[in-house]
């Protein structure tokens, strides 16, 4: 991994100076987490975790690049590549991106049927994470504006590079994917909707923990406002199996997700926000029906109450409640309580290791 | 094409037919807008938030064109890399860490920018405020040593962030020196005050101004302009989603 990082860093450092007027910006994030988790019929499990994200970005008028690496304190120290990409303008309306970057398609924070790249749901995701969706992949992307609020994008997702036996090589080519998307925003005086549709062909299921489907993935995503009261969004996806394109087979691959978001601002700088998302996956038998609820109450701008809940159709749930306190510029502390509710055989269940826990998170953001 | 830069324009109005020193309220407001309306502009500056947590500085760079279009990029601080695009009545945010574009609509526009005293709706508004407000000359007062007209504005339409405003317009510079923004109930929501001015291409601009959200405790936000370029050529795609996510 370290040698792979070296390769990316070399590419980064080689390409950036090609552009004039380069501005370099370092940044970092330090995260210290202490987790105390219940283990039935045993001593509690204490999990300390220290991570440091270090990044460097270079920006010029025509080229920009970013390198971000995560160091995990362990024995030995683990190093993970978060971002390593270079982007170049091709004229005023087009650009090309290459490297380890995020491809953000569809609409949805937790559930997103339009995310045919990384998957529609993350039931195994850590609810305490700052960013629920932050995956990246090796990508080549061409982006073309047409108009101010419309564009299309074509991507190729080659297999990830693998460092094995002292040699850097490409992974399995049948895990590669390629496709594109079109985003169109209609004028506000008509529907005001933002329409997004896309296609991705994937050779294999490369991320078994996420619902990333093999075959021809087609999706449609919409975003709009409910009379200015709340933000509404939704996505739908179908997968066509190249070996069986029949409707009988295809109709069982339907995935639907949708959400609503609203924020209320109150006196003294207080605010309350509400987000509710749902997901229906018919490719699983029985069909998966899940919900995600997020509440955030900020009484005075110094701290905020956070509540997140993930519900599964087997009547189990994963809950997170906590308080996030700003301590100083870029420094924050979080005290979180997490619990799973359900039968041991459910997706989330009690009476299993780590079914309940308390987390103390100290984070410092340096920019 | 005319344009107004957002933080030069936290107050506005449209005139009634009352005369002051030979000028009608509409004419005063036109002169005020001529100081704040540009064909294109590029600004660099700093947003300084002072609150119970102390002082936070965030540098920004912004571009604007006409009344409808602006792009702001924060270039330092916790929000470094975040951008705001406003065009055609739409407001989009870009969060670089998640490579995510968020479209803000409705109630979400009342959210604070950078946890400051400025909200997203303060930078919205495709119509000129003179299309949305009726103005009335109330009198004259001295503000920070400058003789000013006091003009009261009342909204003509529903759904505006500040249904009532009072602005103090410098009689010599035609600059809004001080402004108060009210809710429909008459409750004071925000105050705006110019601390220093600068001359750029024959126009008088506030180089330092301060905004206070009166619903927040012990909080104020100062905006300093370090560099101003007016009437420059901007690429046609400056205010596009492509540039937002660049």
Question: Which terms summarize this structure?
Answer:
heterodimer, A: mainly beta, 18-stranded antiparallel barrel, two-stranded antiparallel sheet, B: 246 residues, mainly beta, outer membrane lipoprotein receptor (LolB), chain A, 13-stranded antiparallel β-sheet, globular, disordered N terminus
* Total strands of chain A: 20
- As a percent range, the share of helical residues of chain A equals under 10%
Number of helices of chain B: 3
What does the largest sheet of chain B look like?
13 strands, antiparallel
Radius of gyration of chain B: 17 Å
Q: Under CATH, the topology of chain B is which?
A: outer membrane lipoprotein receptor (LolB), chain A
Largest interface: A-B, 59 and 45 residues
End-to-end span of chain B in angstroms? 25 Å
The structural domain count of chain B equals 1
CATH superfamily of chain B: Lipoprotein localisation LolA/LolB/LppX
Parts with pLDDT < 50 across at least 5 consecutive residues of chain A: none
Estimate the strand proportion of chain A. Answer: over 45%
Structural class of chain B: mainly beta
- The CATH C-level name of chain B is Mainly Beta
